Amino acid sequence: MDKIKQNPLVKKVGFNRVVLCGVLILMYIFFSILVPAITGSGFAGMSHIMGALNYAYFLGFLSLGVTFVIATGGIDFSIGPVMFCCGLISGYCLITYNMPLPLCLLISILIGTLFGLWNGYLVAYWTVPPFIVSMASMNMAKGIASVFTKTQSVSWPRSTDANGWFRNLVKAGGIPTGLLCFLGAAVICAIILNNTKFGRYIICLGSNKEAVRLSGVDTKKWEMCAYLMCGILVGIATIFFVGTYTTVQPGYGDTYNNEAIAGCVMGGTSMAGGLASISGTVIGVLIISLLQEGILALKLTKDIQLIITGIIVIVAVYADVMARRRKN
To answer: What residue ranges do the domains of the chain occupy?
Structure first.
């Protein structure tokens, strides 16, 4: 094991990322063998690959956003319900009030941004614990969406409809354009996190917030900006969610919190803060998405995926704790 870790290529890429890539490949091989053996249908075809990718796009944007929050040592359990709130309100404006589609997509991003600003302000300036803030925002998002839409579900235009052009963001002529958008956003997030003052400050906040404050840095501003960044990415995630699926229902979205956080933590972002990896988050999201598609292909219930996702979170957090203990 030590020889593998000392390999120049492994050291450059990162041992954790190499392991995650190996897990992703092994999972694909596992499902490619298991699914035909149990159901009699194939798994290695493009239909299942595209199914996994479609799930990865919106989940990926959620994970990218929460990576910035967790890097500060915080948490946000409201991202899933906020995404549904954005989709319900903007979709209702499109269907009921006949607002232009570009404006409705912009409304999605604006709502996500406002929730991010709200969460960040409460955490940074009112010093309310992030767990409490995110739980409160989760309930607020569900309530606001239900009141605005009168507890009705909203159906976004299909690809064959007049306003269906926005679905080209996810898939255009068989090309997974959503993958290009997701990877492009990941590159931008990686640059922000690793090569800007904003990224360095939020990592330092997670490492030792008091030391950063004593050095003269406005910690409240940068902590709020992390939540604001998360809110913007949640709003963008909404566009890819409604671009993949047609109907958005009130009261849902909780499941995506756990999956987004699981992909983030699995990718090497420490729940204690101070350590984050955008590339690791991308691989973690692909693993979660492939797992979801494999479970569906095996005709198992969603509950099985929830159990496995919970186990993944526990294992990932435990590995992070043990790594920190060895380092100390």
So the answer is: 49-149+174-314
